[in-house]
Design a protein that fits this description.
This protein has 4 domains: 99 residues; 84 residues, no CATH class; 57 residues, SH3 type barrels (Roll); 126 residues, Alpha-Beta Plaits. The protein is built from 10 helices and 12 strands. The strands form 4 sheets. The protein has a 5-stranded antiparallel β-sheet with strand order 6-5-4-3-7. It has a 3-stranded antiparallel β-sheet with strand order 8-10-9, covered by helices on one side. The protein is elongated. It starts with a helix and ends in a 7-residue tail after the last strand. 14% of the residues are buried.
């Protein structure tokens, strides 16, 4: 009886220690999660969080397996059951190990097993995550401090990530016993696949490399492609992410940037000119209108002094004298807010100066009507002339 009580006491102690270690693992996991959210960029963070979850889960399984097996060994009535369970588990592990280590021939000089393939997948994932993490680290800690443009930083980080991935796989494959020369057949098969069904993917890949090296667009540029206006967030191998003014992410295949016309508002010289059409009533002093428009433009602190703002009388419309205010700004992304600010200022300045902004006018002219002998309206004598004309003022 004393041996049983003593064994139960040791078993409870072991389970208590396991419970404490489990709590410690939870604290470590939360600390790693907070550090990852604060220090690691979003694309890399997802892989790291997945790796952390897998590692913590494996540690918990091993912890409780060892704890339960050790605790069962301390209680005499549970020892036979523990031995049988361990024997069954050992047989299952041996059979699974035999299946995993069975070699399959691939080519003439290469043989692989399921275990080596699993190791290849796991290590390749480690290579991908590590290359992304290192490239992001170099970009954030070194390239950013050099004062380089955002697009240059992204391009350099992307090229570095590809180089690290290729280098890692080149070192990884021979270490697992895979002969690189035996992959020539696979490369040929992939080439045929590219020629037949993967043309769009290969075109996007080549276009992505072209964008990275020629840099017609860069991260942070304001562009317009296929009628979509937005800021370039990221250029990857297959597609480019654009964020619209409505904060919507649009994924555009890279081939669209090489096959279609792209408007880049930020290319080289980021300054741009915005056009603000304004209509005033006939009879207004055109020189006064010009002076008021220029005064409004010069009074805005984000309108560039050089080139100087201009106010042009564009045309004589049906209902208004059509002016256009032309101003230069430094940041193209501010153009919509600037247009709104200047429109508010123009409306206030016109009200103070007594300048009227007209609305479309419509005139209807009706000539005399003649009655036929029967007292009805004669269709031949009914003549009306009317005009419905309008001129948009914006």
């Amino acid at each position: 009886m004393s041996e049983l009580l003593l064994g139960c006491g040791f078993a409870l102690l072991i389970l208590g220690i396991a419970l404490g270690l489990n709590v410690l693992l939870n604290q470590v996991w939360r600390t790693l999660e907070r550090y990852t959210e604060a220090q690691v960029a979003l694309p890399t963070r997802r892989y790291l969080e997945l790796a952390e979850d897998i590692i913590i889960w494996l540690l918990r399984v091993n912890l409780w397996s060892v704890a339960l097996a050790t605790a069962a060994a301390q209680v005499p009535p549970l020892r036979p059951a523990r031995a049988r369970v361990l024997q069954v588990l050992a047989e299952l592990v041996n059979q699974a190990w035999g299946v995993l280590t069975y070699d399959f021939s691939v080519g003439k000089d290469t043989s692989v097993s399921i275990l080596s393939l699993l190791a290849l997948v796991l290590l390749a994932l480690v290579v991908f995550v590590s290359s992304r993490f290192l490239s992001d680290l170099v970009r954030d800690r070194f390239l950013n401090r050099l004062g380089l443009e955002r697009g240059t930083q992204e391009a350099a980080a992307t090229v570095l990530r590809y180089l690290l991935t290729v280098l890692g796989l080149t070192v990884l494959l021979p270490s697992l016993g895979i002969n690189l020369s035996s992959l020539a057949l696979l490369a040929g098969t992939v080439g045929i696949g590219i020629g037949l069904g993967l043309q769009s993917i290969s075109a996007n890949f080549i276009s992505g490399l072209t964008l990275l090296f020629e840099r017609p667009i860069q991260a942070g540029d304001l562009i317009e492609v296929d009628g979509r206006l937005g800021t370039v967030e990221r250029i990857s191998v297959r597609a480019t992410t654009i964020r619209t003014p409505d904060n919507v992410s649009v994924i555009v295949p890279n081939s669209r940037f090489t096959e279609s016309q792209v408007v880049n508002w930020s290319h080289r010289n980021p300054t741009c000119r915005i056009h603000i059409p304004v209509g005033v009533a006939y009879g207004s002093d055109t020189r006064q209108v010009e002076a008021v428009l220029l005064k409004v433009a010069q009074g805005h602190d984000q309108v560039l002094k050089h080139p100087v703002p201009q106010a042009w009388l564009r045309s004589f419309g049906d209902s208004a004298l059509n002016f256009e205010l032309l101003v230069w700004i430094y940041n193209p992304q501010d153009q919509f807010r600037m247009i709104s600010d200047l429109n508010y200022a123009i409306d206030q300045a016109f009200a103070e100066a007594g300048i009227q902004i007209p609305f479309p006018q419509r005139d209807l002219n009706i000539r005399s009507l003649k009655l036929s002998e029967e007292g009805n309206l004669s269709a031949n004598s009914l003549e009306t002339a009317g005009g419905l004309e309008s001129e948009p003022l914006s």
